[in-house]
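WARN no homologs supplied; continuing
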Amino acid sequence: MTAAPLQQLHACLDQEISLIKTFTQILEQETQLLLDAAPTVALTENTAEKNKLADQIAAWDEQRLNLLTTLGYSPNKEGLTTAAEEHPEINASCQALYQLANQARELNDGNGQLIKTFMTENQQALDTLARLADPGQVYDASGRSRPGSKRPKTNIKAG
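OK structure emitted
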């Protein structure tokens, strides 16, 4: 086994670690933006940055899997764990990668839960507003009840 692919794997792991650290910081910013009810534009910018980093992480992940295959390991977590056991010089990087990936996953899941909660609350508020704005109580520009009103029409006869 040549040293070059192993050195490339080590460099790849270090690059992934760096990207995931930045990704985690962006997720923490996203959490704060969500909790602060930040303007949509701030969340949009944060999401764009997060997606860009996710693409970069995926590219490095693919490179890592290819390097594992080149080195004779399976292209998955088990293969990386085995490589780290057989090559102690990459063990610390492997452990750091696993830890940071778990931290990022937990933050992302938490942010997803916050977003889901906000969406549920917004839908409940919209449903409440829709009930309060009973179509039978709303008039068109001519001052007439809208068609399909829920109020029954009553015929009134004079005396």
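Residues 3-134 form a domain with the Methane Monooxygenase Hydroxylase; Chain G, domain 1 fold (CATH 1.20.58.300).
OK
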